[in-house]
Amino acid sequence: MKIPSTTLNNGVEMPLLGLGVHAPKNISEVQQAVEWALEAGCRLIDTATAYNNEREVADAIRESGIPRSDIFITTKVWNDDQGYTRTLRAFNRSLERLRLDVIDLYLIHWPIKEHRHETWRALEKIYADGRARAIGVSNHYPAHIDELLTEARIIPAINQVEFSPYSYLPEVITYCRDKNIQPEGYAPMVRGKKRDDPKLIALAEKYGKSTYQMLVRWSIQHGVVTIPKSVKRERIQENFNVLDFSISDEDMTLMDTFYDNTRVADDPRTIA
Ligand SMILES: NC(=O)c1ccc[n+]([C@@H]2O[C@H](COP(=O)([O-])OP(=O)(O)OC[C@H]3O[C@@H](n4cnc5c(N)ncnc54)[C@H](OP(=O)(O)O)[C@@H]3O)[C@@H](O)[C@H]2O)c1
Questions:
Q1: H or E stretch including 119?
Q2: Of 115, 133, 161, 198, which has the highest C-beta tally within 10 A?
Q3: Residue 173 belongs to domain with CATH number
Q4: Is 74 touching ligand 1 by the criterion CB < 6 Å?
């Protein structure tokens, strides 16, 4: 199974579907989950300093024997580490834990007003030094990016935001596309909160797929990079088994109307 990819604004290729590794009950589950995902064809892993599992991700990648260049690894600078010098130090520690010389994508995890420009300046330095193949942001809505761009020399390659039909804000995605920023979505399956939604169940039955698969597929069809998380082998396989069908335009439009502002994380609109 070849997972489709997207080309970022600096020419780097990124898979459209990957594995998220946020908050498993036991850190020990992460290595196994990443190994299963790689077996299932996954080549994008989304971690973060805040997830405290960069070492386990590194162990899985080493065990897999898959060439490093075939795997796209994202990590993120946490809020407490923001600011120019602190971010540079945090980045070094992440690389050490991941046992890498170069990360594929380094993101600012959340927009922290007082550090916004300095943190981005650190990411620009990391990029200029060739230690990240791409740099970007997360949880940034248009107002945050507008402000960032007043001083930025490099336009973020990615903006990772919560993205499911239930939190879908088309204006955020359109804004990113207009700026040539690739949107990436997290919590595509709303952490299971919508598995009993009759509207979603009806569509899943129509396509002979699970509600989880419908949500992952919806993200991919929007051209948004998506990173469903599971630590269970069958679920990982299920979440990656979404390339053999497509949702009709009509049903995509229908799913676009499911918005009810259900979120798993804070709404960036509440952050200055
Ligand atoms: N940038 C940010 O601020 C931010 C915030 C949140 C998340 N993220 C990233 O996005 C990734 C995904 O988001 P998320 O983990 O919050 O939520 P999610 O991927 O929407 O949902 C994960 C939850 O759904 C369960 N699950 C997964 N597949 C399933 C299936 N096929 N059937 C039944 N249950 C299933 C998982 O349990 P099991 O593991 O037990 O299967 C887990 O509890 C994260 O891991 C992280 O990498 C980023």
A1: helix 116-128
A2: 161
A3: 3.20.20.100
A4: no
The answer to whether residue 145 sits within a structural domain is yes
Q: How confident is the model at residue 1 (pLDDT cuts 50, 70, 90)?
A: low
Residue 180 counted as domain residue: yes
What's the rounded mean pLDDT across residues 152-157?
98
Q: What is the pLDDT of residues 191-238, one digit of tens each?
A: 999 999 999 999 999 999 999 999 999 999 999 999 999 999 999 999
44, 53, 189, best to mutate for ligand 1 pocket (most atoms within 8 Å of CB): 189
3-state SS track over 158-215: EEEEECCHHHCCHHHHHHHHHCCCEEEEECCCHHHCCCCCHHHHHHHHHHCCCHHHHH
| pLDDT (tens digit per residue) in 46-57 | 999 999 999 999
Confirm or deny that 109 is annotated as ligand binding. Answer: yes
- Closest residue by CA, ligand 1 atom 29: 235
